[in-house]
Amino acid sequence: MSTPDIPREHPSTLWKTVGGRNWVASQQLIDHLFKPIEVLLAEAVKVQSPRRVLDIGCGTGGTTRAIHRHTQSGGYATGVDVSEVMIEAAQQGVEQDSAGQGESAAEFLCADAAHHDFEGDVFDMLVSRFGIMFFEDSVQAFQNLRRVASKDAKGLFFTWRSPQENPFMTTAGRAAKTLVSLPAQDPDAPGQFAFAGAKRVEGILDAAGWHSIHIEPLDFECTFPESELVSYFTRLGPLGRILPDLDEKTQAQIITVVRDAFEPFVFGDTVKFNAACWQIEARA
Fold it and tell me: Please, which residues have CB within 8 angstroms of residue 125's CB and are 6 or more apart in sequence?
């Protein structure tokens, strides 16, 4: 069987197209998996009680809405993401949450946080759940984010550690390579593991003018029903982009091979894996 070469696209392009659509389709599962991060961010916002919070790479907005509820009275959280389809889903979530309640709501903005002019808005806290690894120029991005932060505003960000420490996340790609040629991954290029190196992250933030930088490992267990496993790996990660362009026979072969490769993470009717992350704190 031939192994077609799949060209590498910039992550921001994927978020605006098939990647964003697949993320929206999987939003309930994603929010379930990463609930521990949402809880940590909400608790941090509750303790800090900021007036304005910026949620960078907010996706479909579940975390933004959660932290909004812990801002100061009269304050609010703003979620920003480059994906129009995800921002539309986030706004729909706001409308569902606030229907008939008359409460203030989080706001959402479709924009690139690296370059967007936030029109002088001042954020007392900047947060992100796996949303800061995709900037083309990370130093420039964090310089822009520091510009819109209030004096000594706190940043609290979560990113993935190395692929080696997150074998579940790389299983589909490794297994699929026996059947299709996937693009090579530059470890420092924008992408899921771009912030895997703590020293590199510290250097980026320092070069962008942030200070009091503290980075520590965080691990938590993720679980979801085995019945959702095929949907998970065919929508998210490298297969979500390539499968629609392959013939049905190749699709079926890839799905079979990849499903078998996930067997070490399957325990009866439940999928379990460890999420190895960095918890990054800094001051603007």
Answer: 44, 45, 48, 50, 52, 53, 54, 153, 154, 155, 156
